[in-house]
Amino acid sequence: MNTHRVLTxxxxxxxxxLTAVFATAxxxxxxxxxxxxxxxxxxxxxxxxxxxxxxxxxxxxxxGYRTFEGLPYAAPPxxxxxxxxxxxxxxxxxxxxxxxxxxxxxxxxxxVPGGSTDEDCLHLNVTAPDAAxxxxxxxxxxxxxxxxxxxxxxxxxxxxxxxxxxxxxxxTVNYRLGALGFLAHAxxxxxxxxxxxxxxxxxxxxxxxxxxxxxxxxxxxLAGESAGGYSVCAQxxxxxxxxxxxxxxxxxxxxxxxxxxxFAPSAASLPTARGTGARFAAKVxxxxxxHVLACLRGKSVSRVLAAQATDQQPAYGTPLLPHDPATxxxxxxxxxxxxxxxxxxxxxxxxxxxxxxxxxxxxxxxWPDVAATFFPxxxxxxxxxxxxxxxxxxxxxxxxxVIGDADFxxxxxxxxxxxxxxxxxxRYEFADEHAPPLTPGTPxxxxxxxxxxxxxxxxxxxxxxRTMTAAQHRLADTMIDYWASFARTGDPNATGxxxxxxxxxQSLAPDHTGPxxxxxxHHCTFWNALQ
Length: 531
Prior knowledge:
Strand content: 15-25%
Distance between the termini: 27 Å
Helix content: 25-40%
Structural class: alpha/beta
Largest sheet: 11 strands, mixed
Strand order of the largest sheet: 3-4-6-9-7-10-11-14-15-17-18
Radius of gyration: 22 Å
Number of helices: 16
């Protein structure tokens, strides 16, 4: 087996899990908002001008909801503010145009068509139902996008259905990514956590400003998927985030992720993160410079993106994130807020399919080598091969099951067990085995409900709804009802939706929503013994 080629496939696929999802869903690149002088506009439509604490903004009126895009929540992190904690945005005079999304944070081409090199990216977007007013505020959902901490943008998630059906005010957030968001270096305040600090700055903006849009600043749910879900875990573990949100939703980003399990997001210790930062500095030619940070800040965004590691992780052992989120959750060291948490039935299938299509077949002959490549711990590979037997026809699904069980399903159940000792927890498993495909082409085997496949049921990715059956549309409505009810009350049970028992794992499948047993199906006794 070509181990180097497999590992290359691994790092590429693991870091860019959602790239093809949004590249195909979004179609042509969305127009980005240029630098604005914040001048007045002509005769704004009724209800689309909102006065914020930074200045007035003009959004767009739609059928039953309003959008306000490209709102700055922090100053551009450029020049000396590159690799510095976020600073407040500068107020403006006149009325700022908020009818188009701002630039995504710097990233290679992928989830955001064409990529981005614009560091002036700390913006958010607000979607509010028409019924939301300062006198009648609605619950707020702050959404953190996924993308392996290297790709993604808040504007990729159209929240119209969550606003109109769910009645929530939704805020989608850009935060710094890659080395620009998570570089760690000795003597650099905020090392390893700039992206997390951005998320907290956005939450502070929500606390002080969302009321003007009809959101309730005292009822904020922090939600995210994949790296965004793990970001929610990190914010639960961060003392600086206490009081900034009252509920949490973690989708496919379990708090007990491990660095040696490369498909799911996790955090790195500060010494490890500094080692990564030192290698990055050397790669861009700054390690021997007298003033390393000045040298790094002088490098172009393109050079930074080319030199950064494929995998990016927040650093713990830092002022913002004192402990690994897994440790904090196990110790009960987090705000006691209700949590909705879950994963998808076939999380690993997309990665398994991609690795196989890259020229790495999984057969009875190659399976021991594949297992050893991805799970190199002592005796792990032989135990995996024994517990997950491969035949001539099932190699892809078995490999996908191993990835999904080890990195998502069982860590999610473990996280739920730890959280439930302290707070109300509602667990789900998204299980539509015919979920609309997120990538073009024909996979080498049916993918079922892989990583990120639940997202189109909650948001229109790239502003375009997916093609669904009538039963799938009903499931989407049920999921929005659950998520919105949880944001309102901390309990997902909503009138007209199937009952979600407390303490059970709720299977979410078209016309088959109800409690399910997942521990045995996902071999969690086996994986827990390998911890």
